Amino acid sequence: LTYVKENRLQKGALQIILSGDRPFRKMQFKDVEYFFLDGRPLNLEENDYSPVEMPFISQNIDRVVGPVTDEMTEAQKVRLKEFVDHCHNKGFKVRCWNTPDNVTTWNQLQEVGVDLINTDLLKPLRAHLYR
To answer: What is the SS3 assignment for 44?
Structure first.
């Protein structure tokens, strides 16, 4: 497992990220920590967690760029790129959820630098990424 010991990240084959209703109050980040948090845009401004403790910022795509049907418009891609750049500049990776699950959108997410693609279509995404 990936863990943090004495404020140093020790990479392993698997990293446990707590998402959804995250237990912020229970997370104490002890000398050795095996659990990490999935952040939200608000966490970028709070500066309570480092990118080590909270490796990525996740958000519903609709909240970042507005509703997306089959693919993003150019204006939406610009807004998403600004969001991605802001997160990356603070050291965080980016994940968006509620994105259309298709090759066009996966390409657009990659074009603007989204780090983690959220999907229910694992085999098609794998085939797309490793073609």
So the answer is: helix
Beta bridge partners of 117: 96
- Is 121:103 a contact under the CB 8 Å cutoff? no
Rounded to whole angstroms, the Cα distance separating 16 from 34 reads 7
Alpha-carbon distance of 40 to 127, in angstroms, equals: 29
Helices 103-111 and 122-129, interaxial angle, to 10°?
A: 50
Instruction: State the distance between the two ends of the chain, measured CA to CA, in whole angstroms.
Output: 29
What is the Cα–Cα distance from 2 to 35, expressed in whole angstroms? 9
Give the model confidence (pLDDT) of 65-117 as tens digits: 999 999 999 999 999 999 999 999 999 999 999 999 999 999 999 999 999 99
CB 37: neighbour CB atoms within 10 A? 20
